[in-house]
Amino acid sequence: MAISTEKELGEALKNNQDSIEIEGDLSKKVLKIKATGTVAWAVAIGAIGIAVVITVGSGGTAAPAAGVVGIGAVSVLGISAATSAVAIAVAAGGVGALNSLRQYKIVSKGDNKVVLSRG
Question: How do residues 65-75 score in pLDDT, each as one tens digit?
């Protein structure tokens, strides 16, 4: 089953799926997250972690994720990928899911589709 939303991707990561097929605009955002270098990722994940705490702590009623992501994550990932990263982390239950996402290998990619595999 192809995944097209951050919530679906968060659930797939939380369930440690061996293979994840992502389609649509989300596939481009995931590629951007995966392509981020180690040092830049450290900056982005810190800002994303703060945004997740604010979002979860407010019961989801905080300002839209775009408003709480922070300049660090936005400058590294861009606003679109950064807000998706927050939504994925919230759906998965924490930023650890984003680190696990970065550990998946890209098996194939196309214009609107990417297939990831663990190991």
Answer: 445 556 667 77
pTM for this entry: 0.81
Q: What are the residues facing 20 on neighbouring strands?
A: 116
d(CA 102, CA 97): 9
Residue entry with tokens 């604010």: 54
Give CA 117 to chain center in angstroms.
16
- State the average pLDDT for the chain: 85
Strand partners, 114: 22, 109
Residues in Cβ contact with 42 at an 8 Å cutoff, skipping those fewer than 6 apart? none
* Cα–Cα–Cα angle for 58, 62, 64, rounded to 5 degrees: 145
